[in-house]
């Protein structure tokens, strides 16, 4: 069944980050997407997952963590796109902006991070413990969050493809550092980008269920974190 949604392009201060905000009618939560290096808010994989979440009643914000000018400068060496602290700072800016947006300000919030964006999501979740209620990583590098891993309070799900062996090892190491509710889910037959038939659908199902469990938990408890 299709759910009515409103979609708008947004610009997030103070750095002027570009984003796409989709809000379903009677939304039950909001999920911010942090893409990986070399990608953008137009990532077809993240947009697919976002669409599944929207159908489940979640608002989504897909945003670019670098400005257009920074992307142009960074195209040669990629220094900025691997600067996890910078990216996490941009994500917290977007989180604070959402808390001022009238359509979603009161909704429980979560992060969905891919690749290096997962590292930024973990750091930002540690910085905004009163706001972020759940984190999901897809083929991510949460290990890049370093010491922030032990400071995350939000329940965190790490999703990795079974053929992405190096990233599995890095995620297991990160999992051991997390002190929150946590889980590692390995999708059979999937490589890093989850391009194999059915694998991205599995990612979407896992993410939807995780957010449904932990973001709606905040709703049932009266939105304890909503004002943070």
Short description:
The chain has about 230 residues and is α/β, with parallel strands linked by helices. It contains 6 helices and 8 strands; from the N terminus they run βββαβααβαββαβα. The protein is globular and about 40 Å long.
Structure description:
The chain is of the alpha/beta class. The protein has one domain: Alpha/Beta hydrolase fold, catalytic domain (Rossmann fold), CATH 3.40.50.1820. It has six helices and eight strands. An eight-stranded mixed beta sheet has the order 1-2-4-3-5-6-7-8, sandwiched between helices. β1 (5-12) and β2 form a beta hairpin. The N and C termini lie far apart (33 Å). The model is unreliable at 219-228 (pLDDT under 50).
Radius of gyration (Å): 16 Å
Instruction: Summarize the helix and strand pattern as letters.
Output: EEEHEHHEHEEHEH
Helical segment count:
6
Largest sheet: 8 strands, mixed
Helix percentage range: 25-40%
Q: Could you tell me how far the N terminus lies from the C terminus, measured between alpha carbons in angstroms?
A: 33 Å
Please name the CATH architecture: 3-Layer(aba) Sandwich
CATH superfamily: Alpha/Beta hydrolase fold, catalytic domain
CATH fold annotation? Rossmann fold
- The general outline is globular
């Amino acid at each position: 069944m299709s759910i009515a949604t409103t979609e708008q392009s947004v610009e997030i201060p103070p750095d002027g980050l570009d984003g796409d905000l989709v809000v379903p009618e009677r939304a039950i939560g909001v999920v911010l997407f942090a893409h990986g290096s070399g990608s953008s808010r137009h990532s077809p994989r993240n947009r697919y997952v976002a669409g599944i979440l929207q159908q489940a009643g979640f608002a989504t914000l897909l945003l670019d963590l670098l400005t257009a000018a920074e992307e142009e400068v960074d195209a040669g060496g990629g220094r900025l796109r691997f600067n996890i602290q910078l990216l996490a700072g941009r994500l917290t800016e977007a989180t604070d902006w959402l808390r001022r947006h009238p359509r979603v300000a009161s909704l429980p919030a979560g992060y969905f991070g891919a690749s290096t964006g997962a590292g930024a999501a973990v750091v930002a979740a540690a910085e905004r413990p009163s706001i972020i209620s759940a984190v999901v990583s897809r083929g991510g590098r949460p290990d890049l969050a370093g010491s922030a891993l032990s400071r995350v309070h939000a329940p965190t799900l790490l999703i990795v493809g079974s053929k992405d062996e190096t990233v599995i090892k890095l995620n297991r190491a990160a999992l051991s550092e997390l002190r929150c509710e946590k889980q590692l889910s390995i999708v059979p037959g999937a490589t890093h980008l989850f391009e194999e038939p059915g694998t991205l659908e599995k990612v979407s199902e896992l993410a939807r269920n995780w957010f449904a469990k932990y973001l709606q938990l905040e709703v049932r408890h009266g939105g304890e974190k909503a004002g943070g």
